[in-house]
Fold this protein.
Amino acid sequence: MQQLEKSISRRTFMSNTTKASLAMGFVGTGILSSCSNDAKGDGKAILATGYSQTPLAYDYSALAPHIDAKTMEIHYTKHAASYASNLKAALEEEKVDTNKPLEDVLKNISKYSTAMRNNGGGHYNHELFWSIMSPDGGGKPEGDLATAIDSSFGSYDAFVTEFENAAKTRFGSGWAWLVIGEDKKLAVGSSANQDNPLMDISDFKGTPLVGLDVWEHAYYLNYQNKRPDYVSAFWNVLNWKTVAERFAAAST
Ligand code: MN3
């Protein structure tokens, strides 16, 4: 019964979100063409981010108690939604061809406005964040990704310490990252505000595999000033399977 209710509420949510995407006028641009690439099996589609919000693959309450339902709802429908809508305005204002991937805009962000930087980054970062979390998350990386983590950081535990340190010590608002660099090595770092490692203005660069939002809006309702507790709880909802798919796509 509970399962049924869950599936009905999810269907209603999906349908509302689809309507919202249609209303925003972004269906039929980049993201769909990247889906068809995926059907051809090139695997890179997982690294392509569309210009509108993707429906969450789980309920707002699904990540509790690690991330509570109210935080998820406000974060997705208010904070992330406003980055998406402000990005749309910036794209129109700056006459960006949205058949090009968002990643191309971010990689050349120095040529665009501050609004594009803040909202393009904000939209990309949140889309990544939702996609790498799951109620079935947790555990440890496996296979080639586990091997790469061991060889880049010494061990899984050493990676966790380094990542948590990046998340805890990022002053003010920002993100902690696990990236794969051009040298195909993994690295951990952080960025301020809504900047990210794809941006040409960033001094920490790479293709993001994991991004953790450490803005207070991401955790304050449940954790208040205890950012370290939120950071440790994140491992329980991190979906290593999706991270491994991103790693595989970025490694080739
Ligand atoms: Mn956020």
In short: The chain has two domains: 2-131, 143-251. Confidence is low (pLDDT under 50) at residues 1-41.
